[in-house]
Amino acid sequence: MARNPSLQLAALATVAIPGLDVVATRAPQRTTADYRYCGVLDDAGRHWVVQAPLHASAAIALDAESGLLRQLVTAVRDGSLPFDVADPAGFAALPEGWRVMVYRELQGRELDLDSLRPGPGPTASLGRAVAAIHELRGTLIADAGLPVYDAASYRSRRLAEVDDAARTGKVPPALLARWERALEDISLWRFRATPVHGDLAAENVLLANGQVVTVVNWSNAHVGDPAEDLAWLYAAAPEESLDTLEESYAMGRSEPPDPHLVSRAQLYSELAVARWLMHGVRLDVPDIVADAESMLTALALQVEDSDPIGHVRPVVQPAPEPDPVSAGTPGTSGTPVSAATAATADTAGGTWEVHGSLDPDDGGEVVAVDFGTAGTPTPPSPA
Question: What is the pLDDT of residue 319?
């Protein structure tokens, strides 16, 4: 690209949109691992954004995204999506044979994860926004030529990613064993595939007046596991905001989220670091590889004493003294309950009170068994 990339992108905007008269460059002016962005101002006072790929893979992804965006714009207009998306206004060729995309500047500021709090506001709006993505028609993704996976093929894809990372020799063995165990636990992989954004992160979610108003960067969209779009939140959002997030997300879905959604989100939050490693390996960027190695080492230490992903640990707590009047009544302190019965309790409701003895020979009376999912470790952000 030219010595002054912003001026080159501004010039390309006039090629992409015939008759556009650019008078100045404006924010955003930023570069990611995949794209360079340049804001421009035209003579009518309108703000535009020029998005240019930096390598062949990004160019392919941008072309695929542009096809999806046209369909998403329709979903915005018919009310299926409660936020805005980029509406491609034109394209221009780069010397490498790739294309830049030009679209009107989108409203909102990047999400600040630390601003998420319980109750109405940004957290609830974010949960509804993610749910709306997962309620889109799967054919919308397929028609745009983007990948479609069912639960089995999605799991196979994740297994392949772990295998690729393992072959680099740069992933701590304890992490590999942890990930492989989760991937081999078939019970975690029973879910209905939905459209997913595939790259939700704070910089891709824009807010205004406490509400999600724009979601950008759809190049990784596909039909797959909805847990993928929640992984970043379980990894980095304030813990006190998660109940509100889950409630608003569940209310926005037409069916209840599957019981292992959080466990898979936890797995994906960890695998994001392995993906960062493979990104550096494939692009042959030593700094990215070194950064990912450091992050993997830190993650291995962080989860060293954690339960396996998906593990449900029963916590036995004392319960109030039994009512003598009810002694001997079925389902109260006079009725023993086997350990097998307790082990197969429905965990979806949280605390499950078992009246009776877990072992008729141990003299036990009343216990309360709290089935809770182990806490989600927070790997450093790969971005």
Answer: 63
Same domain for 50 and 141, yes or no, is: no
Residues 98 and 113 in one domain: no
Write the DSSP string, 286-327. Answer: HHHHHHHHHHHHHHHHHTTTSPPTT-EEEEEEE-PPPPGGGT
**Domains of the chain: total:** 3
Q: Which of 278, 302, 326 is the last residue of a domain?
A: 302
CA distance 236 to 376: 10
Q: H/E element holding 72?
A: helix 56-77
For the chain (length 383 residues), average pLDDT per consecutive 10? 79 93 91 90 94 91 90 92 95 92 93 91 95 94 90 94 93 93 92 93 92 93 94 89 93 89 92 91 90 92 85 63 54 42 38 36 37 37 45
> What's the pLDDT at 324?
58
Q: Would you state the pLDDT for residue 320?
A: 65
Residues 154 and 257 both lie in one domain: yes
Q: Do 122 and 225 belong together in one domain? A: yes
Q: What is the DSSP letter of 57?
A: H
Note the pLDDT of residue 356. Answer: 36
Q: 70 and 200: one domain? A: no
Q: Strands, DSSP E only, in the chain?
A: 22-31, 35-42, 47-53, 88-93, 99-104, 109-110, 194-196, 205-208, 211-215, 222-224, 312-318, 351-355, 366-373
- Mapped onto helix, strand or coil, the DSSP state of residue 183 is helix
In one-letter notation, the amino acid at residue 193 is A
Q: Is residue 382 part of a domain?
A: no
Q: Which of 72, 104, 136 is the last residue in one of the domains? A: 104
Q: Which domain holds residue 243?
A: 109-302
- Whether pTM > 0.85 for this model: the answer is no
Q: Is residue 380 part of a domain?
A: no
Contact 102, 48 (CB under 8 A): yes
Instruction: Classify residue 383: in a domain, yes or no.
Output: no
Please tell me whether residue 177 adopts helix, strand or coil conformation: helix
- Asked if residue 194 is part of any domain, the answer here is yes
What is the side-by-side strand order in the sheet with 351-355?
A: 312-318, 366-373, 351-355
Cβ proximity of 299 and 273 under 8 Å: yes
Yes or no: say if 244 and 127 are a contact pair by the CB < 8 Å rule: yes
Give the pair of three-digit tokens for residue 278: 């493979």
| One domain for residues 184 and 92 | no
How far apart CA 301 and CA 51 sit, in angstroms, is: 38
